[in-house]
TrEMBL record:
Transmembrane residue ranges: 146-166, 271-289, 295-312
Record-level GO cellular component terms: membrane
Principal localisation: membrane
Protein name per its UniProtKB record: Omega-6 fatty acid desaturase, chloroplastic isoform X1
Gene it is expressed from: LOC107809769
Organism: Nicotiana tabacum
Family: Belongs to the fatty acid desaturase type 1 family.
Ranges of residues in domain Fatty acid desaturase: 144-391
Length: 443
């Protein structure tokens, strides 16, 4: 008789017949933990009360399956890519990029016009953000209490546009005047109390080391060794990579941008200037808001839109580079073209979000070359679709996509890319099982 234990990925066979010799059967079975290659091999009779993995039957001989973990379904197969696309909430999962392709090969296919800086278009993006943010503040001031969430959603999205402007300035793709770029970038970041230069230095490393283990400064998988080493923090980590993940950029903002020890000596002076600007805004701006509107006004006009901004900051970042099929690689295995073209996700959002956020989610061309201004990203993406379309990861925002990221993409595993918390520590993973039950699953 046979007994299948699907959750663990193992299959056991107990038989009253004589032991099996010189017999080898191989089959593939799938479970929630991934895909395993099961190789049936003859084993000697074993009698041990301590072998909990064997089924104990009176006067029986037991054959044990040797379970060898293998990688998720191959992306080489169009059928597998289509199945995974549907399962994860993608419109398309790109086929693997050949090793011989380089970043230069990809960049040279882009039209030169997408690299051109247009001060008129740059000014237009500033006007869009300033107008939409002002409108948002007006809506907050006039809206009845039951419409305030809508006003906060609009204003938080509008102020995210300021971040995108500063983001372009940091990449030197906003204006032909480089001093003006740094001034505008610093000012654009001030309502977010984000220090411009510290963020710029960290973000440059993200582009240079996208999805590289240890080195990437954006989202990283949880390391099993670290997760096991800090049992007191496990619950916080599970919440952080689960229900609270759409706001985890707050932790990243605090931990990575205000500590001078995290920067190189030649960066320190510029970092100090940015920190001085941020602290001056807090020292002057916050008391003015409180003086005019009170503490409740500070919450209404600043804190809630700021939380809305961090929702988009976290959500955009994790969608851009996080999916069960997108690997993180050690530096000796890392390939720049594969990480930037194959490891970056294009995601379509509702048009009002795209307009207010200046097309930052047209993200693949931005990783091919950060010198492309945000107002040229769509033209660059069209070129990539024409020349490299079969290798692109593309999605339209949907609940299944978010559910995949929040409930699967947790602990790093070299073979499977990610292992969910509820498989690593099922007794502590209630926040993840809760998300699986309550989050919608439609794409």
């Amino acid at each position: 008789m046979a007994c299948s234990v699907a959750d663990s990925g193992f299959l056991f066979l107990a038989s009253k017949q004589r032991p099996i010799h010189s017999t080898r059967i191989t089959q593939v079975a799938s479970s929630g933990a991934g895909t395993y290659c099961l190789k049936w091999e003859s084993l000697p009779q074993i009698r041990s009360k301590q072998k909990s993995c064997l089924i104990s039957l009176r006067k029986t001989n037991v054959v044990r399956a040797v379970a060898v973990p293998i990688a998720p379904s191959s992306l080489d197969s169009a059928e597998d890519r289509k199945r995974l696309s549907e399962m994860y909430g993608f419109r398309q999962i790109g086929e693997p990029l050949p090793d011989k392709v380089t970043m230069k090969d990809i960049t040279e296919t882009l039209p030169k016009k997408v690299f051109e800086i247009d001060n008129g278009k740059a000014l237009k993006s500033v006007l869009i953000s300033a107008t939409s943010y002002t409108l948002g503040l007006f809506m907050i001031a006039k809206a009845p209490w039951y419409l305030l969430p809508l006003a906060w959603a609009w204003t938080g999205t509008a102020v995210t546009g300021f971040f995108v402007i500063g983001h372009d300035c940091a990449h030197k793709s906003f204006s032909k005047n480089k001093l003006l770029e740094d001034i505008i970038g610093t000012l654009a970041f001030l309502p977010l109390i984000y220090p411009y230069e510290p963020w710029r230095f960290k973000h440059d490393r993200h582009h240079a080391k996208t999805n590289m283990l240890h080195e990437d400064t954006a989202w990283q998988p949880v390391w099993k060794e670290e997760f096991d080493s800090f049992p007191a923090l496990r619950k916080a980590i599970i919440f952080g990579y689960g229900p609270f993940r759409p706001w985890m950029s707050i932790a990243h903002w605090w931990l990575c941008h205000f500590n001078l020890k995290k920067f190189r000596p030649n960066e320190i002076n510029r970092v100090k200037i940015s920190l001085g600007c941020v602290f001056a805004f807090m020292a002057i701006g916050w008391p003015l808001i409180i003086w005019k509107t009170g503490i409740i006004g500070w919450i209404k006009f600043w804190l809630m839109p700021w939380l809305g901004y961090h929702f988009w900051m976290s959500t955009f970042t994790m969608v851009h580079h996080t999916a069960p099929h997108i690997p993180f690689k050690n530096s000796d295995e890392w390939n720049a073209a594969q990480a930037q073209l194959n490891g970056t996700v294009h995601c379509d959002y509702p048009s009002w979000i795209e307009v207010l956020c200046h097309d930052i989610n047209v993200h693949i061309p931005h990783h091919i070359s950060p010198r492309i201004p945000s107002y040229n990203l769509r033209a660059a993406h069209q070129s990539l679709q024409q020349n490299w379309g079969k290798y692109l990861n593309e999605a339209s925002w949907n609940w299944r996509l978010m559910k995949t990221i929040l409930t699967i993409c947790h602990v790093y595993d070299k073979e499977q890319n990610y292992v969910p918390f509820d498989e690593v520590v099922p007794e502590e993973a209630q926040p993840i099982t809760f998300l699986k039950k309550v989050m919608p699953d439609y794409a």
